[in-house]
């Protein structure tokens, strides 16, 4: 199965850590959205496309959002999503899924992970969820990835 994982990871590389675990488990190409090139342009060439983002004030990163908004409408492309945040709320993934569905992606699964967060006012208190993602979080991501292959 030809797969690609497209992600954005900024502050503590939380999303990148999760992205690497998922990509390794499903043998997917791993691409930071900032490094996405024309050689990757045709997402129809992939059997499975994954999108990952940190959450910033309840929203996915602007680079991922812009990438999705400017992608040609897909024809039921099999897709999965994952997010990292200080709160790990499922509703963040719901908004992400709505955006992808509006572009013709078929979101088959989603994953969320609570991670170290110092964004905005949290930096004043030294952040929350220090040490995360931890081994258990990475194992959960690995199990999520395995479920994509079933």
Provide key terms for this protein.
alpha/beta; 33% helix; globular; 6 strands; 150 residues; single chain
What's the number of helices? 4
String of helices and strands: EHEEEHEHEH
Helix content: 25-40%
Alpha-beta classification: alpha/beta
**What ranges have pLDDT less than 50 throughout 5 or more consecutive residues?**
none
Strand content: 25-35%
Overall residue-averaged pLDDT value: 91
Oligomer: single chain
Instruction: Estimate the global geometry from the Cα principal axes.
Output: globular
Q: What would you say this structure looks like, in words?
A:
By secondary structure, the chain is an alpha/beta fold. The protein has helices at 14-26, 62-70, 90-102, 135-148, and strands at residues 3-8, 29-32, 48-56, 59-60, 77-85, 105-114. Strands 1, 2, 3, 4, 5 and 6 form a 6-stranded mixed sheet that branches. Helix 1 (14-26) links the parallel strand 1 and strand 2 (29-32). Helix 1 (14-26) packs across helix 4 (135-148). The longest helix is centred in the last third of the chain and has 14 residues, at 135-148. 36% of the residues are buried.
């Amino acid at each position: 199965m030809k797969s690609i994982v497209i992600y954005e990871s900024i502050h503590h590389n939380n999303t990148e850590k999760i992205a690497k675990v998922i990509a390794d488990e499903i043998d997917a190409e791993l691409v930071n959205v900032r490094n996405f090139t024309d050689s990757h342009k045709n997402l129809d060439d992939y059997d499975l496309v994954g999108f990952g983002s940190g959450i910033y004030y309840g929203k996915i990163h602007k680079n991922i959002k812009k990438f999705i908004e400017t992608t040609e409408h897909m024809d039921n492309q099999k897709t999965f999503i994952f997010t990292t945040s200080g709160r790990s709320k499922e509703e963040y993934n719901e908004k992400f899924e709505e955006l992808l569905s509006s572009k013709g992606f078929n979101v088959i699964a989603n994953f969320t992970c609570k991670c170290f967060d110092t964004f905005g006012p949290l930096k004043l208190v030294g952040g929350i969820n220090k040490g995360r993602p931890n081994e258990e979080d990475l194992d959960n991501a690995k199990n999520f990835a395995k479920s994509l292959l079933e």
